[in-house]
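User: Good morning. I'm curious how magnesium ion would be positioned relative to this chain. Could you predict the structure with it bound?
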Amino acid sequence: MHRLAILGSTGSVGTSTLDVVARHPDRFEIVALTAHRRIDRLYEQCARFRPAYAVVGEAHDALRLNATLRQAGLPTRVAYGQDALCDVARSAECDTVVAAIVGAAGLRPSLAAARAGKRILLANKEALVMSGALFMRAVAEHQATLLPVDSEHNAIFQCLDQARGGQGVERLILTASGGPFLRRAPDSLHEVSPDEACAHPNWSMGRKISVDSATMMNKGLEVIEAHWLFGMPPERIDVVIHPQSVIHSMVAYADQSVLAQLGVPDMRTPIAHALAYPARIASGVTPLDLARLSGLTFETPDPAQFPCLRLALNVLRDGCQASVALNAANEIAVEAFLYGAIRFTAIAEVVEDTLLRWPIDRHGADLDDILAADARARAHARQSVRRRGALRPAAAALY
Ligand code: NAD
Ligand code: MG
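Assistant: Good morning! Here's the predicted structure, ligand included:
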């Protein structure tokens, strides 16, 4: 029986995780669930899964949730804020932490889980992008187990010959769908709306990662994630566009065998794999019907169409602080785009603008350095958003 804390349980990965968990009450027990603002959804999850703890973002939401839980006679104890997230991540009552918070907010709790030697199911790629060396060191020093949930990394994990420690691996090949604007003329991209950017052709995901997929920043973040997870130098990680999203990634070996992992694009497959690893369990996902596939195609991404991908691939060369700055600027730019304050094409401009002012720093960084660089980069990026002018008057107040 695994005892789980699901950080970010109300999100896309969080709800998919609970869907798989509900199919296997004999294997999993829920100890803690967390949400930022979606208190009603968190209440429903608490009523169904009866965790010992629930964590929310703010005090007033904690009071509200607590009152509703008490009224219903439910036993869940409520806390709020980053420290409470870290407390549940390191609690002796859970052995497994599902890190499914979006963005930099997931860093401290994910790191707390690593330092407590937990089994970590990592979806929160931003944590690894920000703190790769530090995070992997914490995993090793505290004998934590890191299981990738991101579909590409989970596919690679499955294709690596675990028993032989990855011996003979030549390249990792990350597949990318190309997102909703793959066939769109680059000179029309400045006019796309947030809803168009979030309408991913194959995957249903949260809004931030959906925009990242449309800019292909997501694939850049995933190359950085793969570099840290698998200890692979960036020049041996390839990105190939595969619009059907059936092959989730591949590993090429020295003898030119290429192993791939296939399945319909549904996060419940990598989640079920990581939840039960090394066992295999039912995920609820529709079986892959090979005869009904019209074909599997591959192409090289065009750097002119996807400047965010180029920016992300460059930062690995420039050290930890550059990765932190890239991630922070991207979070600010994506939020500003979703809010209607800047155009889609300005996301890459804000990120580049922030990186250009960033000193190259090849030294290691501790958590305080990382959080300080994150705060500085956010301030730069907000200025850059302001310079680009608010599209909606209300947005001006925010940036
Ligand atoms: P989402 O927006 O659907 O959900 C995010 C979750 O994090 C919610 O529960 C929300 O309440 C919580 N959250 C948001 N801001 C927070 C804050 N400041 N403090 C604490 N909690 C906060 O996101 P998602 O699509 O589920 O993605 C989650 C993570 O998984 C991201 O890092 C994403 O890149 C990664 N990921 C997602 C998918 C996918 O299919 N959705 C696939 C691969 C990787
Ligand atoms: Mg992915």
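The chain has a mean pLDDT of 94. The domain at 154-264+290-396 is CATH 1.10.1740.10 (Rna Polymerase Sigma Factor; Chain: A).
Let me know if you'd like a different ligand tried.
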